Amino acid sequence: MSQPRMSQPLSHPALSAADPELAALVGAEEQLQADTLRLIPSENYVSAAVLEATGTVLQNKYSEGYAGRRYYEGQQNIDQVETLAVERAKAVFGVEHANVQPYSGSPANLAAYLAFAEPGDTVLGMALPMGGHLTHGWGVSATGTWFRGVQYGVRPDTALIDFDEVRDLARKERPKIIFCGGTAVPRTIDFAAFGEIAREVDAVLVADIAHIAGLIAGGAHPSPVPHADVISTTTHKTLRGPRGAMLMSRASHAKAVDKAVFPGLQGGPHNHTTAAIAVALREAAAPSFRDYAHAVVANAKALAEALLARGYDLVSGGTDNHLVLIDLTSKEVPGKVAAKALDRAGIVVNYNTVPFDPRKPFDPSGIRIGTPSLTSRGLGTDRMPLVAEWIDRSVQAAAKGDEDALTVIRGEVAELMAAYPAPGLPTA
């Protein structure tokens, strides 16, 4: 096998001069991201333009307040940056109001609580082991401590959301807020069904689209806009933006949402992140992004089919989006063991619980994989059988303790990755 073509680290002359130790770590991470097959569904590559925007002099500004209503002077340019991001968010997602200031997804969700509930109120969200998120009222989160969290799950026979349970719980518990969306949900979210239930019990419906925002922007997943009162999302993942977040809503909720973000939960926005969000939204409005979003889903479906053909058990039997959840019970390899072996093979995944998992969360039965990053690199459906083969060989190697096999796979992965340069990373 020929030696893989290696990418070169980005040039960071000032950083290298000031802190060579840190510069070396950054360079090592650049190399790692170039050489490995990144299958964590919440990760992606940003464009060089988004990367540059996060490192601009906008970092130097404090801008408490909103455009035209700041508590600091010198905001002539910042107001325009934030307005660009807001208007682009409204256009891309078709919403009446957008707030681009939340620091990340969890604070964005917390702002929804602050806007529409009081401490001790009941909230209804998807249980974490079933695919939900910590901030949807799970007990170990502040949202489950300050509010009364009630959880719905999935059907044992299909692993799909049990809407009979959702409706029964909503009628019984009368929650102030209902959350839909999650972190390990491989199927289309039925926003219309959630909206109907929320209206029946007079609850605020918050659609957490952090994982699927890019798919929605690209028309590869139905939008929650006609059904949800509030939409929460991160700006990275499938949207290919910086590590930030947004809250979007109907105009009638704009004041409550904005007040909850500032001054309710945070001070000055991170203006360099706002600028990068604006860039990402401009990219998401391009026709090529629709192609990208649909390619992400096509790759995920092709990868799921290839894994099924190799005898793997997939939660819900497959995927409708970017994410595949694999139950490794039948392979007799725990998820954590498999994830670490795959990492040594140059295939980056995360171990994950599966619905009704008998194992503990830190040592679960499954792994979670996704196709946003590999699609950003240009891999298509024709490469998914090879990816499935590598996963299968790695899991088998993990079962046998065969480190040599993992080393061979890592070389194969690096060679293929060299042929598909990643956005934002240089090539030799």
Strand-residue proportion: 5-15%
Tally of separate domains: 2
By DSSP, the count of extended strands is: 15
Poorly predicted runs of 5 or more residues? 1-9
Global geometry = globular
* Main CATH class of the largest domain: Alpha Beta
SSE layout and pairings?
Elements: H1 13-18, H2 20-35, E1 37-38, H3 48-53, E2 65-66, E3 69-70, H4 76-93, E4 97-99, H5 105-116, E5 122-126, H6 142-146, E6 148-152, H7 163-173, E7 177-180, H8 191-200, E8 204-208, H9 213-217, E9 230-234, E10 245-249, H10 254-265, H11 271-284, H12 287-309, E11 313-314, E12 323-327, H13 335-344, E13 347-348, E14 350-352, E15 366-370, H14 372-376, H15 384-400, H16 403-418
Parallel strand pairs: 1-13, 5-6, 5-7, 7-8, 8-9
Antiparallel strand pairs: 2-3, 4-10, 9-10, 11-12, 12-15, 14-15
Domain Serine hydroxymethyltransferase-like: 15-391
Family: Belongs to the SHMT family.
Enzyme class: transferase
Characterise the protein shown here.
By secondary structure, the protein is α/β, with parallel strands linked by helices. The protein folds into two domains: 53-284, Aspartate Aminotransferase, domain 2; 288-418, Aspartate Aminotransferase, domain 1, CATH 3.90.1150.10. The protein has 16 helices and 15 strands. The protein has helices spanning 13-18, 20-35, 48-53, 76-93, 105-116, 142-146, 163-173, 191-200, 213-217, 254-265, 271-284, 287-309, 335-344, 372-376, 384-400, 403-418, and strands at 37-38, 65-66, 69-70, 97-99, 122-126, 148-152, 177-180, 204-208, 230-234, 245-249, 313-314, 323-327, 347-348, 350-352, 366-370. It has a seven-stranded mixed sheet with strand order 4-10-9-8-7-5-6, sandwiched between helices. A four-stranded antiparallel sheet has the order 11-12-15-14, with helices on one face. It has a two-stranded parallel sheet with strand order 1-13. Helix 8 links the parallel strand 7 (177-180) and strand 8. Helix 4 (76-93) runs parallel beside helix 11, helix 7 packs parallel to helix 8 (191-200) and helix 15 packs antiparallel against helix 16. The chain starts with 12 loop residues before the first helix and ends in a 10-residue tail after the last helix. Belongs to the SHMT family. Residues 15-391 form the Serine hydroxymethyltransferase-like domain. Pathway: Amino-acid biosynthesis; glycine biosynthesis; glycine from L-serine: step 1/1; One-carbon metabolism; tetrahydrofolate interconversion. Keywords: Amino-acid biosynthesis, Cytoplasm, Methyltransferase, One-carbon metabolism, Pyridoxal phosphate, Transferase. One of its GO terms (cellular component) is cytosol.
